[in-house]
Amino acid sequence: MEAQPDPAQVSQAVDALARSILAQRIQTHKDKPERLRKLEFFKQQFDALLLAQHNIDGKTGPKMSLDVARLDSELQQGLTTLERDGGQYVLLPLSPGAGLPQGPAGDAKSTFGSSKKKKKSKLSCSFCNTQGHTRAHCEKRKLAPKP
């Protein structure tokens, strides 16, 4: 007869593995250069402005998005400015439709009024009091040292 593994040991091993994976993900995020994090944040904000302007104007053409790859290379070479009406302006590279802002369901379609909208969880975590997950899935709890 085969000996059954101790459930407590298996649970501890799985817990240790999960902590290791989570710590690795957090470290990967921390290792990302600050320049790239700021560039991603700028892109999200700028794309939201473009989308709002597109909706206000009632345009039917393709929605434009900031081209991050071209912007990154231009930032490294130095931005080109344009003088107009006594002011200095910077031109930003745009591309049609690429990298549109993400909606709550994680896809670009939900931002534009798709009929398949997913509800955002209204559950609240009893460990960190953050809305959107439960204690069982709380990353802060998983990383906290055990007493």
TrEMBL record:
Can you tell which superkingdom this protein's organism belongs to? Eukaryota
Pfam families from the UniProt entry: zf-C2H2_10
The record's region (Disordered) falls at 94-121
Q: What is this protein called?
A: LADA_0F09384g1_1
| Originating organism | Lachancea dasiensis
